Amino acid sequence: MTQSRKNSLTGSLMLTVCAIIWGSSFVAQTTGAEYVGPFTFISLRSLLGAFSLLPVILIMDSVKKKNGTYKKLETKKEKKFFLFGGLACGAALCVASLLQQFGIDRGTEPGKAGFITALYILLVPIFSLFFKKKIRPVIWLCVAVSLGGLYLLCVTDNSVRLSDLYVLGCAVVYAIHILVIDYVSPKVDGVKLSCVQFLVTGIIAGIPMLLFEDVSPELIKGAALSIAYSGIMSSGVAYTLQILGQQKTEPTIASMLMSLESVFAVLTGMLVLKQIPSVREAIGCVLMFAAIIVAQLPEKKKKIETTEKAEISA
Predict the structure, then answer these.
(1) Which residue of 128, 169, 224, 308 could cross-link 133, Cys pair, CB 3.0 to 4.6 Å?
(2) C-alpha 32, offset from chain centre
(3) For 79, how many CA atoms within 13 A lie in the half-sphere containing its CB?
(4) Residue 314 confidence (pLDDT) above 60
(5) Where are the alpha helices (DSSP H) in the chain?
(6) Residue 163 to residues 44, 101, 118, Cα–Cα distance (Å)
(7) Contact 297/123 with Cβ under 8 angstroms?
(8) Distance from CA of residue 132 to its chain's centroid?
(9) pLDDT in tens, 252-288
(10) pLDDT reported for residue 308
């Protein structure tokens, strides 16, 4: 086996484990909601996620210093951009995370929440139209198919549950969050940016947590395992695997592997919570997953055949 092939397989394995952790974290959010409110769960989870990334930052900085690739924020402009970028990313992440947790807290099953949240993959290119970016025609087809899947998944008796609308709102805000990340991350250290955005999310959610929710030690103790899994595994471990895995994997394959998050959300919901989707819901999931995968396929470049003009001599 060649070294490049070995690296590719290692990267794919890392990203698959990453998707498993993210998918199973929906179950952790569901079990945690039995003890604490949405603000408490998101605040504690995010703060734990921020602190779990500190060892990763120290290790990566050490490696960069040895390789001579370490870059410190020096100018006031760079520091200001990093600070405001972290605040913007954190604010968007906070709103998206809270909407998702409100939906799960009010009854949306983990598997369904995973698939609805994954719609941000289709919403990102649509929102990019506001920045005058072109959108491929196949994306519109994927949107139509995903809407059909969403209808089968969420609409029962000609009505939609409020909890599902919360999660749908989460997908919308996650798409905005991705666009903000897309603008900020190329100019700063990605891991440090993630650490700051988790910290900002935890602080913002912590204010209404203290004002409106019961934060008794007994309730937090009951949700401790769920919070720890979502904070440490979903943030620290999975994010690190994502960074390392994407370095070894072709971008299209990487995005598809991480899309498996929604599938693992359903599987873990079935295994842990015994939540079996109906036939109608299963068809909706298949349609949505197919749309998400097709939307990530690279566009085939048209082969342009160039011919050199030859002078015809008499």
Answers:
(1) 128
(2) 19
(3) 5
(4) no
(5) 3-32, 38-52, 54-67, 76-105, 110-117, 120-127, 137-154, 162-184, 190-212, 217-222, 224-228, 238-248, 251-259, 261-273, 279-296
(6) 22, 9, 16
(7) no
(8) 24
(9) 788 888 889 999 999 999 999 999 999 999 999 999 9
(10) 43
